[in-house]
Amino acid sequence: MLSIYNTLTRKKEEFIPISPDEVRMYVCGPTVYDYFHIGNARSFIMADVLRKYLEYKGYNVKYIMNLTDIDDRIIKKSIEEKIEAKLVAEKYTKAFFDDIEKLKVKQADVYPKATDHVQEIVDFIKQLEEKSFAYNVDGNVFYDVSKFHDYGKLSGKKLVELEAGARVDVNEEKKNPLDFALWKKAKEGEPFWESPWGKGRPGWHIECSAMSGKHLGETFDIHAGGNDLIFPHHENEIAQSEAATKKKFVNYWIHFGFLNINNEKMSKSLGNFFTARDILKHYSAESIRLLFSQTHYRGPLEFNDELLDSSQKGLEKFKNLVEKVSPHPVPLPKGEGVSPDFDFQSYYKDFESAMDDDLNTPQAVAVLFDFVRDVNKAIAEKENLPSEFYSNVKEFLSKTAQGVLGIVDLEKSEAQGSSVEKELIELLIGLRNGARKEKNFALSDKIRNELNELGIELKDSKEGTTYKKVKK
């Protein structure tokens, strides 16, 4: 039974999706005005781990991640780079996809862009206006937070206290300093779309409400993002969506902790950040994912080279085992040999128990390290292990370490192993050809026969010696 900490209720709850076999999940994606930093990567990777674990448990996950491709920061960058805002968004959208692919993050089912959903956004704002939750001031449309009585329920903030703190940033157009923009009137030279309120563009918060509603429905299972999005972004999404539909917006809110540099939150505004692509120049995706998995997703994570180096070192244990089993030494045929007393199911059970407890990846990683240690011990103690043992080892690593956490890459290791195997076979063929030239037919025949026993069949011709693999 999977339990998840729900930010909305401030407690761990049994996860029960709306549809028994399907999970509808929305994750706040990037604003594409720059390369995303490694702190953003933590949210993307941990959301990916959650999605993959849900799939591991047999759910069909409909996974949506939005792209904010029109925003004040994009416009500012377009002025700095002297190119259109659209071209800025296209440039950094491509960079985003390049970087998440390198981080082994599985593609979302849909990446809705704000600029492709302007009509849905306009229709959403019209609903709020008709229900008196929105008001227009000379082409700027604001959401009236005083009309939504549950405002603050996600963050735990009280409206009165928020209003007092917000008065330092007074906007004369607003009825209340906490009211937020649904539609922004276009300034001269800015990109714009036509609307009932004049030329302008959507506010940030309304984009997610409109796009999640279109792709997942008025109520869906999981909404995830970084802790910094709880207020005001996710709070405002709830206010807009529930005001418009009169239905619960999301059942489970999941938020990821900050990445810290010297105990201070990593952010672009503070200037203490590293881009994901910069880190990937020096460290593998697997080492970054292992580092993130060794801290619980809700807690803060200190980020530095020493921790990354330690993570990379820890990965060597997995790599060494993968090299032993992918491809593994040629075992005895199925049913032969002495199989160790190895309870694979107990490791599955322990892995699932950890992950079911609010995605306790540190404990899950500990289970995997125990598995690696115990498999190595079994290999060291037994000779002539049956093929089933190696297959079971690979299957466990494939489903857990690779399929959920993304900290090993069996396909890559097998490709490397295949390359080494090819070189060794060609080396033996070269030795055999040398023996034949020296008329050492005993050695020549021995090499051919030994390779044949391993399932490698040689064929001599005028052009030379070739080989093919045959099933034994």
Question: Overview of this structure, please?
Answer:
The protein has about 475 residues and is α/β, with parallel strands linked by helices. The chain folds into 3 domains: about 5-280, Rossmann fold (3-Layer(aba) Sandwich), CATH 3.40.50; about 300-410, Four Helix Bundle (Hemerythrin (Met), subunit A) (Up-down Bundle); about 415-470, no CATH class. Helix content is about 45%, strand content about 15%. It contains 15 helices and 15 strands. It has helices spanning about 40-55, 70-80, 85-100, 120-130, 160-165, 205-215, 230-245, 275-280, 285-295, 305-325, 345-355, 360-380, 385-400, 410-435, 440-455, and strands spanning about 5, 10-15, 20-25, 60-65, 135, 140-145, 180-185, 200, 220-225, 250-255, 260, 265, 300, 455-460, 465-470. The protein has a 4-stranded parallel beta sheet with strand order 4-3-9-10, sandwiched between helices. Helix 9 crosses helix 10, helix 11 packs antiparallel against helix 12 and helix 14 packs antiparallel against helix 15 (about 440-455).
